[in-house]
Amino acid sequence: MADQLIKATAADGGIRAVGVISTKLTEEARARHNLSYVATAALGRAMTSGLLLASNMKREGSRVNLRIKGNGPLRGLLVDAGLDGTVRGYVDCPEVELPPNAMNKLDVGRAIGREGFLYVVRDVGYGYPYSSTVELVSGEVGDDVAHYLVNSEQTPSALLVGVFVGAQGVTAAGGLLLQVMPKAARDEALVTTLESRVSKLSGFTPLLRAGKTLPEIFEELLGDLGLVILPEIQMLRFDCRCSFNRVLGALKMLGEAELKDMIEKDDGAEATCEFCSEVYQANSDHLAQLIEDLRTESV
After folding, report:
1. What is the residue-wise DSSP string for 30-67?
2. Which CATH architecture has domain 4-238?
3. Assessment of whether the complete model's pTM goes beyond 0.85
């Protein structure tokens, strides 16, 4: 099934639902960064969360950054997701592996750590980006992002994100965001019903592995609450905006002396993008041209 995002409403617009399938983009991230099992799960959950948060933005070009810093061996991760359905990200220590937790699941909480912070930056395309920081509650990513939504955006939310990764790579990844809008938040019976149904779910990836589509998942959860599935299906993909020209621009900022040193000692320079692990090679001719450009600009 293709990576995609679908939206729906229920209870006369009192409930907002967003579902994401992110299997292929999570597998691409795993392969690009040579991630361990637990690192794959952590980054996949975070990328899915980023896409779910970005889906609520309005202005073209809007993006969300999630930075998690914890006291676990994974140390942290960074995700950049856009309203356009693109996402990229990396983990600080991609090789870290841990035994399963007590529920025989990948121990993302221990890998990230239960002490630390989640930093969220929303760039709406103009003015200063909006930033917020909350303490981690579990390190499991989904819990932490839901905690952010409740405390920073004052929106009661349920967030389910999951990644199933095995010897053949990522075979299921995705997530679901349910939010109770202000006009429905006072309906205690509705909120209780929604909480009960979400609590009975064993996770999101079991639904995908059972062959459930996003509309079918919505129908099971909200079908009797006036469910309306919006017709638009947004395709999602792992995408990085790095380029050779951007690398040259970064090298140019090092200055003439540093560029000369690179030519003399290494006959060039190599740069690796943190977000996608793409490797760029700049030879001595490229660096010499940068030096020439710097001299021209200084005249």
Report:
1. HHHHT--HHHHHHHHHHHHHHHHHHTT--STT-EEEEE
2. 3-Layer(bab) Sandwich (3.55)
3. yes
